[in-house]
Design goal:
- This protein is α/β, with parallel strands linked by helices.
- Helix content is about 35%, strand content about 20%.
- The protein contains eight helices and eight strands; from the N terminus they run E-H-E-H-E-H-E-H-E-H-E-H-E-H-E-H.
- An eight-stranded parallel β-sheet has the order 1-8-7-6-5-4-3-2.
- Strand 3, helix 3 and strand 4 form a beta-alpha-beta unit.
- Helix 1 packs across helix 2.
- The structure holds D-xylitol-5-phosphate and zinc ion (ZN).
- Zinc ion (ZN) binds next to strand 2.
C-alpha cells in the first residue's frame, strides 16, 4: 500500500493557555500541517472549549509566520448557524458532526459556498453508512477514536474497524477525502493506523506532542517516523 505523507494537526485545546501566543509561534516554526481548534457549546458535548477569538488569534499569528491551515472542529448543535462566523475568523476547514444537524448535507454545501474545505466527523457510534451519500462532497473525514468533548482519553480499539472501512471505501470509489484520527493518538495507535489502515491525518494531544521532554519540532519529527 502506498503511504501518504502524514498530516499532523496539533490540538490547540492542549496548549498551556498562559503562553498561547509563544506556544503557537513555536508550533508554527515546526513541520506541522494544520491547527486543530475544538469548538464546544456545552450541549452537543458536555464541555466548553474555544471560540472565535482563539481562532482569530491563531490566524493572525500564523499569517505572520508559516501561514498554516486551520481547522475548526464544531462540537455544537446546528453548526450552520456559525460556519460563516468561523470562515470569517479564518478557518480553512470546517468539520461538522452529522448528528448535530437535521440536514448535514446542506451545511456541507454552505461551507463549500464560503470557499472552505468541508469536514465530517464520525463519533464512535456513527457508521460509514450514515454518511456514505455525503462522502463525494467531503474533503476531510475525521474519525473519533474517543467519545468527543475531552482531551487525554484513551483510544477505543473498536473504532479501528471504521478507519479501515473508510480507507477501503475511498479506494474502491476513487474518492479523495483525507482521513484523520481525533483522540487518543499515541505512538502505537498512529503507527498501526498509518501502516495498516492507510490513515494519513492525526490530531495530536498530550500523548505525543504537548508537555513532552523534547521541543515541538523534535516531537513532530519523531511522529513523522512512527
Ligand atoms: C476531543 C477533541 C480532541 C482532543 C484530542 O473531543 O476533539 O481534539 O484534543 O486530544 P487527545 O489526543 O488528548 O485525545
Ligand atoms: Zn477535535
Amino acid at each position: 500500500m502506498e503511504e501518504k505523507r502524514k498530516i499532523l494537526c496539533p490540538s490547540i485545546l492542549n496548549l498551556a493557555i498562559d503562553h498561547i501566543r509563544e506556544e503557537i509561534e513555536k508550533l508554527d516554526a515546526t513541520d506541522m500541517d494544520i491547527y486543530h481548534v475544538d469548538i464546544m457549546d456545552g450541549r452537543f458535548v458536555p464541555n466548553f472549549a474555544m471560540s472565535v477569538r482563539e481562532l482569530e488569534m491563531i490566524r493572525r499569528i500564523t499569517d505572520k509566520g508559516h501561514k498554516r491551515l486551520i481547522d475548526c472542529h464544531m462540537m455544537v448543535m446546528e453548526p450552520h448557524r456559525y460556519v460563516e462566523m468561523m470562515a470569517k475568523a479564518g478557518a480553512d476547514i470546517i468539520y461538522i458532526h452529522p448528528e448535530s444537524e437535521l440536514i448535514p448535507s446542506a451545511t456541507l454545501e454552505q461551507i463549500q459556498r464560503l470557499g472552505k474545505k468541508t469536514g465530517l466527523v464520525l463519533n464512535p457510534c456513527t457508521s460509514l453508512e450514515s454518511v456514505r451519500s455525503m462522502l463525494p462532497i467531503t474533503d476531510y473525514v475525521m474519525v473519533m477514536g474517543v467519545n468527543p468533548g475531552f482531551a487525554g482519553r484513551d483510544f477505543m480499539p473498536y473504532t479501528r474497524e471504521k478507519f479501515a472501512e473508510l480507507n477501503q471505501y475511498r479506494q474502491d470509489h476513487g474518492l479523495s477525502y483525507h482521513l484523520v484520527l481525533d483522540g487518543g493518538a499515541t505512538k502505537e495507535v498512529i503507527s498501526d493506523l498509518y501502516h495498516n489502515c492507510g490513515i494519513e491525518g492525526y490530531v495530536l494531544g498530550k500523548q505525543e506532542l504537548f508537555f513532552q521532554k523534547e521541543d515541538y519540532a523534535a516531537c513532530i519529527d519523531r511522529i513523522r517516523g512512527f
